[in-house]
Amino acid sequence: MTQSNNQNESNSKLLKGIIIGGIVGGALTLLDSNTRNKMKRSAVLLKDNSMNMIEQVKQNPGEVKEQMVSGVKGATETIKEAISDVETLYETVNEEVVGKVSEVKEISTNALDSAKDATSELKDISSKVVVAGKQLKETPAQSLKTEKEDNKKGEKDSDEMVTKSQLSNEKSISSNF
Length: 177
Prior knowledge:
Layout: H1 2-30, H2 33-59, H3 61-176
């Protein structure tokens, strides 16, 4: 109950604020002479149109009624035509645009799938290229390294043999003396 009272009070305050704001805003706009002149002309024009309408109704009520009915019928026909045009436009958009959107969606889905497949295939190819590259690096380089190591080993072995042979010759020469 108190919540309802609080809500009514806040709605009442809001309504009062809107009314007071409208009055203050209206008063401030009327301080401008251009705005005042426009308001005067609008009021005079409204008064003149109302007086003309009242005069026509007094003089010829049937004719005024006929004009109003004719105007309403014309407006109704125009509205019906506009509704028909909107329906036609809706059908056209629905058939052409929505159909095309569906086609584009399908095409893009297919393209995405193809791109995913191509990515997968590229990964396979790149892994094969990496393996081939490793094989190329290992095979000639390893054999060259092995040959170089073998040559160095052979040179070392022969150097060692020469050194041992020299040592043994020296020993044998020194033992002879």
